[in-house]
Every structure is written in structure tokens, then in C-alpha cells.
Amino acid sequence: MSTLDITTPASIVHDGCIIIKRSTRPDDISSIHTRIALPSVREIGLFAHTTHDENGEHDKSGLDKDDMPNHAWLDELVPVLSEIAQDFHFEKVTLCDFSWGCVTKSTREFLLSRFSSATHLKLCTVDFWYTNELLKTLQSFPRLTQLEIVNCEWEFLNLSQEQATRTEELNLTHLILDEAHTQYDPVVLWLLGNGERAIVNVSSAHIVWENTDARCLVRLMEKIAPSLRNLTYRQKVKNLVECTPTSRGLDGDELTDPSFSAVLAERWTAPENEKVATVKAMELLRTTRVNRGVLTELDACIDWSPLAVFGIELLCQLLSHQATSVSLTLILDSSPNDTEWDTVDELLNTLTVNKTTLAVFELWLDGDLANSLFFDDGAPIMRRLPRLVQQNIWQIGYVDSSYDSASD
Predict the structure, then answer these.
(1) For residue 291, what are the β-bridge partners?
(2) Which of 59, 75, 213, 242 has the most CB within a 10 Å radius?
(3) DSSP 3-state of 340
(4) Can you tell me the distance from the alpha carbon of 136 to that of 141, in angstroms, rounded to the nearest whole number?
(5) What predicted TM-score, i.e. pTM, was given to this entire model?
(6) Is the dihedral angle over the CA atoms 163, 167, 173, 177 positive or is it negative?
(7) Contacts of 335 (CB under 8 A, 6+ apart)
């Protein structure tokens, strides 16, 4: 789509998207009616600039002198935003860089009601404070076909069982669960409707999983496997913030269910010991057995750790026999032991890939480790992966991370 710019100080329309930020003036928005053809604008993005701007550049202009988020500017724009909400059919809504509790109740309610017909919701660097507010936001867009959540957080657990339980169908063409500060359990709970959604279809997914608790991930994959055709998967274990039960809420948070929150908090407590987590995760895979679905394109990258084997086995269960493209990258700080190599080799050997499948197995490691595994035309790594070598289908290679980092 061609770039559409308004010659105002804010220049708020770009590529069919209305950009709303702190420097936007009411007159800038009002002028859209006379300058832009209605069908040309399909998106609206609201950027609070507490950490970065709409281009991803460092920008904290949305903070006050005490370094606290100041979203009062948005209240002043509500009247004119209300006007354009009536005239434009926004297919995509982006909320970026907000501290949700610093937005007034009336403005929060306005944003979640006036743009609710959008089918594509992107939440980027939003601190929702409470899980109740997170679920309120998700539920305010009943026509969703695309959902993106990137770098968001929701530390305090105060949602109710009634709020989490959904029965309506959910059909997403794209689902993105990218890096986050807090565990994704509340989002998955909503996606699955607390186990009550009969139909949850996801055609394409990008998932970054950083939690040692695999139960939530397995439940999600089990549900969407019959519809999932394309998956980009990133696994790296780190200490995410766990949701803390609270009876508090923002102004307007009527939904409180302390007993339900307490149950969820106990259920969502992640094992601190990754080896313990791995035993539990592998047992879960054996008892759940995610059914092989229609996944034909897989691009996976896994940091090597005790949980890496779980991630590989989960992906092997998901992949269709008709897979056309499979790429698995393992990021290594040190070489797995012989038993671990044998497990990886055995798991990948269970995949039914054929001569027409583009199958790539890649290791991301530093120079010394690369030299130890790939000297003599890769003989050491070939000895560790005999089944893969015998298949003669997989392309086995490596990236020297020390060289790559030095060249950035």
C-alpha cells in the first residue's frame, strides 16, 4: 500500500495506519476526514513512548519528570478519536508501550469498546498490571482472526472463573506469543476458554516459550494441533515473573474470585529446578500424547538445556508426515553428552521426512566447540547423529556464533 502522509507536525498517517502518539494534536486527527479516503485507512496504532517509539527506537518521552508513565494526553484525544472510530473501519488495532493502570478508566473503556470490531489485535510492551485487565482486553475483540502479544506483562492475578470460561469458537489465522516478562498461562487459559472452548483453530503460530512449566504449552498444542499448518518455535528457559494472587484491581475491576485465583496460582507455579521440570514435562508428553496434526512447515530454535529434549519431542509429535519444510536449530554453550546426542538422534529419526522435504538441522555454537564437532569434514558430529546421517535427507551444519557476533 502506498504511503499516505498528512503535512502536519505529527504526520500521523503512514501506509494506511493512523499513528496516535503523545505529540498528536486533536486538529491532526480532525484533518484526516478531509485529507484521506476512508477505504485507505485500515489500521490504528496508539504509542505511549515509555520505552520506545513506533519505529522501535529508544524513546521515553511518555514519562513524566519522575519517570512515571504519563498517559493524560490520550484523554484529550478521546473526542476526536470517537469521531474517526465512527467513520473508519479499523481492521487492526495496536496498543504499544502503555502502563495500563495509568490510563484513566473512561479512556480504557473507550479504547476497548470503540475499536472492538477489529480482527487483528497487537499488544506490544503493555504492562496490564492485572490479569483481569488482560482478559478484559482480549475479550473486547470478539472478531479476532489475528492476535499478537509481544513483550507484555500482567503480574497480579485477579481474574475470575466466569471471566476465563469461554465457549464461543476461536479461529485465528495467526497467533504470535513472543517474548514476555510474565508467564503466558493467563493468555492460554483465555485461548482455551478455561477448557470450555470446543473449537480453537490456529493456522499459523509464532511462539516463544521461556517457562519451565510445560503443562500450559502442551495443553495449547494439543488443542491447536489439528489446525496448525505453520509454526515458528523458540524455546529458551529463563526466570519469568509468576502471577501473584491479589484481591486488588484498577478502578472498574468488579470481577474478583479469590478462590479461583488461588487455585490458578498453585497450578501455575513453575518448578525452579529445570531437571525436575524436565521429568514432569516428559511424563506429561507420554500421558497426553499430542496427536500428529497437519503441521507442514516448522522453523524451531531451542537453547540447549535439560528441557531441550522435551521441546524436540513435542515438535516431533506435532509434525505431519507430509511436512514440506523442517528446520531445527540448537543453540549450544557446551556439547551435550553422548546420551543426550543419542536421544536427539533417535527423536529426529522418528520424523517421517521424505526426499522432497527441506530438512535442516543446525547447531549454533562458538568457535572452539565448532572446531571440536565439525573438524575433519564434520566426522565428530556425524558419529553422534548416525541415524540422521543414514537417512541422507537432513542438511547438517553449524553457525559459529563467535564469528557471527563479531561481525554484527
Answers:
(1) none
(2) 213
(3) helix
(4) 9
(5) 0.91
(6) positive
(7) 369, 372, 373
